Amino acid sequence: MTTAAFSTLPLSAVTLANLDTLGYREMTPIQAQSLPLILKGHDLIAQAKTGSGKTATFGIGLLEPLNPRFFGCQALVLCPTRELADQVAKEIRRLARGHGNIKVLTLCGGVPFGPQVGSLEHGAHIIVGTPGRVQEHLRKGTLVLDGLNTLVLDEADRMLDMGFYDSIAEIIGQTPAKRQTLLFSATYPAGIEQLAKTFMRNPQQVKVEALH
Ligand code: ADP
Ligand code: MG
């Protein structure tokens, strides 16, 4: 498998510097296949095993079009669990260094609702959360997704296994039609195809079998 440096992509100097600091020099195969499509604005279904670098793939993709001066939610990442949401938020914060004052907020169940409302009032550029809690905030009107550019469904197969299809569908119904949708999954069960057919616009598909 040939590798390619991140510097071959049309990325901002700040992102390239952050990747260098993180020690990410060569793209992993899923990054090399996905990022050119993501940066062109395509919807994408990416299938790759755990540990293949999916977080940085969508993290870079959602940060490039972000406007730090607009304090509305521009990117939403849905994850199956709070632990995964915390890991994703941590990685996005690292990738966002130097991009301006970018706020990444996690919205997960199992923690009190009120403090999340307080944080949302201060504004957040990027939200990483679990479907149930995000849906709850949308229903209460404490979260508005009118300014969303990028929607990421991370570990989509696990979210479907956990019975989140309807929550995801309701959340997507609150987002602008003109958005980029990126779906990441280790497997490709029927529910994923249903999600893609219903909510994605001409999605490009990439698949990586081996880890590296
Ligand atoms: P996945 O979501 O596919 O399971 P992660 O995004 O959690 O994988 O990444 C797995 C590990 O690989 C993380 O420790 C991450 O820091 C590291 N990683 C991601 N991209 C690169 C890269 N291009 N070069 C080196 N390490 C990377
Ligand atoms: Mg992952």
Automatic annotation (TrEMBL):
GO terms for molecular function: hydrolase activity; RNA helicase activity. Residues 4-32 form the DEAD-box RNA helicase Q domain. A motif (Q motif) lies at residues 4-32. Transmembrane segments: none annotated. Residues 35-206 form the Helicase ATP-binding domain. Keywords: ATP-binding, Helicase, Hydrolase, Nucleotide-binding. The keyword ATP-binding applies. Belongs to the DEAD box helicase family. This is ATP-dependent RNA helicase DbpA. It comes from Metapseudomonas boanensis. The gene is dbpA. The chain holds residues 1 to 212 of 459 of the full protein.
